[in-house]
Amino acid sequence: MAIVLADVADTIRIFEIFGTQVLCKNVYSMAELKHNARSITLMEIGKQIIETAIKNGATLAGIANVKALNTSASHLIYTQLGNYSGVGTIKDDDTLTADQLFNWPETARSILVIGLSHPRGLQKLDWWDGSGGTPGNRLLIDIMKHTRQQIENNLKINTNKLHYYVEKGGVFLKDAAVLAGLGCIGKNNMLVTRDFGPRVRLRALFLEAEIEPTGPVRFDPCADCKVYCRRVCPEKAMVEKVLAFESIEDSLDLPARDGTYDRELCNIRMEKDISESKKNTGTHAPIKYCRKCEFACPIGK
């Protein structure tokens, strides 16, 4: 039985990918061969994108599917939680309304997620300073800037930058990281990674190409954990299940796996951190937000 190939270019490309021995053992239709060749090509492109991000300084990198992200837990329940204006949110004239949220570019098919380790020995990476943001976030921005340029120039894939804030068109980075295979949501309501625990910070980039996702993965270090994170919280923000989540059908065990996370109490701690920073070292002093739940986590130490 013969294999009919459309043209010489197809023949060369498919032989490069599958090898002549495989083709001799199996007979494929042209459509099947092209589909398999495309799948492997996209896997290779994904691998190159991740390697590029790591070479540029990222500690972790992975790729998720945008459609899957749009139906992830945080994106489903966010608009059902009511108004919230705690630390880490933003409200101004450019803030999107509820019906405008998560309407990302139609051309975005995949999302690259990168992480940067923020170990206990380098706590300054996470201090909010007078330059805006943190040193760690500025490093992430620089890493993503160079990675984006190389993806567009070398791989000829168009990209779309994301705003950091969800209220301005961003995504929930923890959900994206889980779908990209970087870790899981822990009982401290943070992303927990294999090698660095929850001590990482994230950034993301939309890709206008259907790249093979690198996750999610089977990883659950919290299953039999003694929840050190919950016991160390100074505001007891992870003691009782928040009633609001019992009435939300799509909560999918969020936040913190079982609804045992109170963002209002957590916000009280962050407001105290801001006040203490100003009181101790002046108006332009860096803000050192509480990270006790992160440092208590034994994963990645």
Helical proportion?
25-40%
**Strand pairing plus helix content: what structural class?**
alpha+beta
How many domains? Answer: 2
N-to-C SSE series? HHHEHHEHEHEEEHHH
Q: How many angstroms separate the termini?
A: 58 Å
| Biggest sheet statistics | 4 strands, antiparallel
| Rg estimate, integer Å | 22 Å
Characterize the overall form: globular
Description of the structure:
It is a single chain. By secondary structure, this protein is an alpha+beta fold. The chain has 2 domains: 1-55, no CATH class; 56-296, no CATH class. The chain is 36% helix and 10% strand. It has helices spanning 8-18, 20-25, 30-55, 66-70, 73-77, 135-154, 173-179, 228-232, 263-281, 292-296, and strands at residues 60-65, 110-117, 159-161, 184-185, 191-192, 200-207. Helix 1 (8-18) crosses helix 3 (30-55). 30% of the residues are buried.
Give a quick rundown of the structure.
The chain is an alpha+beta fold.
Secondary structure elements and pairings:
Blueprint: H1 8-18, H2 20-25, H3 30-55, E1 60-65, H4 66-70, H5 73-77, E2 110-117, H6 135-154, E3 159-161, H7 173-179, E4 184-185, E5 191-192, E6 200-207, H8 228-232, H9 263-281, H10 292-296
Antiparallel strand pairs: 1-2, 2-6, 3-6, 4-5
